[in-house]
Amino acid sequence: MAALQQSPIAFHQAKSPPSNRIFNKTLTPKPVLLSFSSSISSLKLAGKTNRRGGNAAGATMVGTAAGSYASAIAEIAKSNGTLEATSTDIEKIEKLFSEKQTYDFFTNPTISIEKKREIIDQINQSLDLQAHMANFLNVLIDSKRIELITDIVKEFEVFYNKMTDTELAIVTSVVQLESQHLAQIAKGVQRLTGSKNVRIKTVIDPSLVAGFTIRYGSSGSKLVDMSVKKQLEEIATQLDFSDISLAV
């Protein structure tokens, strides 16, 4: 199974100075002016009907709930000038909950909310999360919606990319590519899309044999396939031996 890794590389236009990559101002940390709980309360998402279901309607409702949470996080971060720091916190949370043991603990209904909040407090201190992100995790625990965390992370990434004119490119290869190669790929994707920024995520997939693939666009709808696997499949298609029988 392919392993997903977050690459630290992000390509930005040379015209933008280091402290001015996304907005035309320096992103200086400011006090949090909005609480996550007060912002999310207006979304009225406490109902249990939004939990993950086994049909298409259930899946749509989950997507709506996750999108509402993600939108609230993005708006709070934008209003406080902490969008970049919040994106970093989201990556920390994504990595944490990608561990099965962590996810299973927090989604286990037999474990009390008090115990979960106790562990969340330890996590907040360990990861050094911002106040509104720590509050966000506690809101999910209290409302028993922590199972949405993976969907919320994905939805936040969509909002972040739109707010910062960032194109996400997923690069799949057999081994981890060198940073200079990823930078070249980022420049290529930027030329193809015209976006201000390109963010790279890397996936390791041994089945490609060699080479790499690049997915970008809405929901990864566009593909650049430079893998040996594709070349072998094309050769196999051209060399159709299905009508040849071997003598025994």
Automatic annotation (TrEMBL):
Top-level taxonomic group: Eukaryota
GO cellular component, one term: membrane
Residue numbers spanned by region Disordered: 1-22
Compartments, record wording: Membrane
Keyword terms: ATP synthesis, Hydrogen ion transport, Ion transport, Membrane, Transport
GO molecular function: proton-transporting ATP synthase activity, rotational mechanism
UniProt cross-references to Pfam families, sorted A to Z: OSCP
Chief site of localization: membrane
Keyword Ion transport: yes
InterPro entries cross-referenced by the UniProt entry: ATP_synth_OSCP/delta_N_sf (IPR026015), ATPase_OSCP/d_CS (IPR020781), ATPase_OSCP/dsu (IPR000711)
Family listed: Belongs to the ATPase delta chain family.
Protein name: Atp synthase subunit delta protein
